[in-house]
Amino acid sequence: MEFPTVRPRRMRRTPALRAMVAETSLEARQLVLPMFVREGATEPVPISSMPGVVQHTRSSLKAAAAEAAELGLGGVMLFGIPETKDATGSGAIDPNGILNVAINDVVAEVGDAIPVMSDLCLDEFTDHGHCGVLDDQGRVDNDATLAIYAEMGLAHAAAGVDLVGPSGMMDGQVGVVRAALDDAGHTDVGILAYSAKYASAFYGPFREAVDSSLQGDRRTYQQDSGNAVEGVREALLDIDEGADIVMVKPALAYLDVIRRVRDAVDVPVAAYNISGEYAMVEAAAANGWIEREPAILETLLSIRRAGADVILTYWAAEAARLLRP
Ligand code: PBG
After folding, report:
1. What is the DSSP string of 22-41?
2. What angle do CA 176, 177, 183 make, to 5 degrees?
3. Chain-wide mean pLDDT for the chain?
4. Radius of gyration of the chain from Cα atoms?
5. Which of 117, 121, 198 to mutate to test the pocket of ligand 1 (most atoms within 8 A of CB)?
6. Atom 5 of ligand 1 has which residue's CA nearest to it?
7. Tens-place pLDDT, residues 16-70
8. How far is the CA of 155 from the centre of ligand 1 (A)?
9. What is the value of pTM for the model shown?
10. Which domains can be identified in the chain, with CATH numbers?
C-alpha cells in the first residue's frame, strides 16, 4: 500500500486555511436586489410563488431601498406594476407612471449611496403582456417598440436612474436607448443590457409578481435554450451598441453561457438568478428537503464561479446579512 504524497486535503483542514485558498468570493457589493412596486398598493402584497418577496407600496419600496444601501448591496433593480395596462404600454413612458415615480422616490431616498437601476421593458405595462407593441398581425414589432424604449429610457433618466436595464430582447434596443440618452444630455446614465436572455420556463413566478397578462410565449424574441454561441454574439452586439454591463439570464441553467460571455468581453458581466430559481430553493427548503441558507449561498457562489461579476438575486439582502463577518 502506497500512501499519497500529494494531499489536497491539507488546505482544507481548517476554516482559516480554506478561506486563504478560496478561489471565489461572494460579497454584498456584488449583489443587486430586484424589487417590485405596485401602483395604488396600500400594503405590501405577498407573491405566493416567491415566499418572502412582495409587491411593494411606494413607501415600503423606499424603506427597502434604504436597507439595501445600509447592507452595502451593489444596487437595486426596480420593476413597476401599473393599475391599468394597454396595448402600447403607455404607463411606461408617463412621467406619473408607477415605475417612473418609484425611481424618483428611491433616488430621493438613497441618493448616490447605492446604484438605482430600472427594468426597461413593456411587458409589465401592456395588456397583451408582450415586451413590445404588436403589428396588425399580432407579431411583436421590433422597430416600433424601439421608439417606445427610447422614450422609456428618457423617462427613467428624468426620474434620476443610474442604469437602465433594457430587457425586451428587441434587436438594436441598446443602441437606440444609448442614442436617446446621449442626445438628451444623459451621458452619465448607464445601460445594464439583458443581452443573452433565454425563453425560459423558470420565469414562471415572475409572471405572478408583475400580474402578467401574457398568453403564449416570447420565443420570437428571447433566445432558444440550446444556443450558447448566440448568447455570446448578443453580448458582443450590445457592447458595440454601448452597453456598460452585459447580462445573462437566467443564471443556473446557463452557467456555461455566463462563462463564455465572461471570457469573451471586457465589460462587467451580470447574471440574473431569476424567480423560478429562487422558488425552487424556497420550495425545497420549506419542505425540509434541503437546508435553506447553505443552498442560497452555494447557488450564488456557483454563479460567481461561472464568471458573473454581479448577480441580480431576490436573496440579495438576506445573503448580505449571512455574509457579514
Ligand atoms: C422582462 C423581464 C422578465 C424578467 C425580468 N425582466 C420576464 C420575462 O422576460 O418574461 C424575469 C425575472 C425573473 O423571472 O425573476 N420585463
Report:
1. ------GGGEEEEEEEETT-
2. 90
3. 97
4. 20
5. 121
6. 167
7. 999 999 999 999 999 999 999 999 999 999 999 999 999 999 999 999 999 999 9
8. 20
9. 0.97
10. 27-323 (3.20.20.70)
